Amino acid sequence: MNDQDNAETHNAGGRQRLWVALLALLVVLSAAAAAYGLWHVGHRQERLAAQVEQLQAGIRQEESAAQALREQQQVTQAALDKLRAEAYRDTLVRVAVEADSLVRIAHYHLSFAYDLPGAIDALAAAEQRLQGIDDSRLLAVKTQLAGTLRALREVRAPDIAQLALRLQDWSARVEELPVARVATAVPSPAPLQTSHWKTLLQGLWAELKTLVAIRHRDETVVPLLPPAQQYFLYQNLRLELEAARLSVLRRDARAFHASLGTARSWIKRYFDVQAAPTTALLEALDALEQTDIAPPLPELSSLQALLHDLIQSEAGTFSNGTTPP
């Protein structure tokens, strides 16, 4: 083997060793890179695990805070519900008291003044106050109130003032009635409801008996009563009409119809029923006789009792601090 061959052989061995060294270096570098990658991944996982733990700890804290907040909200809501219930109960009692006062006003209008429009206005105001509260405890009161209002509106009450004026007008015009040509004594007036009028009529009758003389005549036409007797006849009729007027103002139907009946009887017996003024008065009395001056009215006691029981019940519950059902 010559020198050239030895040199080639030596170069080939060197190249082989170089490649081996390069491969070894690549293996080392790959191993180092893999080791670094593993270390980096592990380190990142540790960081991620720490972050997850931190997040979980924060969530647990937030959940605890949220639970505390919910508990506080429940306590606050319970307090608000209690205050709202107390305020509602107070409103319910206040409105019921206002309605009760209005019903009492309506009772006054009906019992003492026989004022149907005033009573209807008061009950309508009470109904309006109760409409603002939708509560089953007011159902019975609202039903009773609506029925009472409906019954009152159906009552056909007469015009008392107009009736009294008509009777007063006729009382002032009784002397327009011509006396009949009948020889008889003026009748004793029927007892009136008022002691003052009864005493007055009894005195007039006692005086009239001293003036009237009953005579039996054979003439077919009998002269008129003397002026003095006619005067007391007119006065008796005037007082009877006045008694009817007072009965109208008192809504005393029994005394009213009794006075009208007596006046009608006297007119037919002692006055000329063919004369126009007499006929007009008889027609007026017949029309008055058909008038019901005191039609029956619905009673308010049951409505007042319902309101009174409701007020007592709810006010007592409110004072005990309990909540409504």
Tell me the number of helical segments per DSSP (H or I, 4 or more residues long).
9
Mean pLDDT: 77
Instruction: Provide the number of structural domains.
Output: 2
Report the sheet-strand fraction.
under 5%
Integer-rounded radius of gyration? 56 Å
Please describe what this structure looks like.
The protein is mainly α and 325 residues long. The protein folds into 2 domains: 1-157 and 300-325, no CATH class; 160-289. 75% of the residues lie in helices and 0% in strands. It contains 9 helices and no strands. The longest helix is centred in the first third of the chain and has 109 residues, at 3-111. It starts with a helix and ends in a 6-residue tail after the last helix. The model is unreliable at 207-223 and 318-325 (pLDDT under 50).
Which helices and strands occur, and which strands form pairs?
Blueprint: H1 3-111, H2 116-131, H3 139-154, H4 160-172, H5 195-209, H6 227-250, H7 253-270, H8 276-289, H9 301-319
Précis, in short:
The protein is mainly alpha-helical and 325 residues long.
Main attributes?
325 residues, mainly alpha, 2 domains, 9 helices, 75% helix, 0% strand
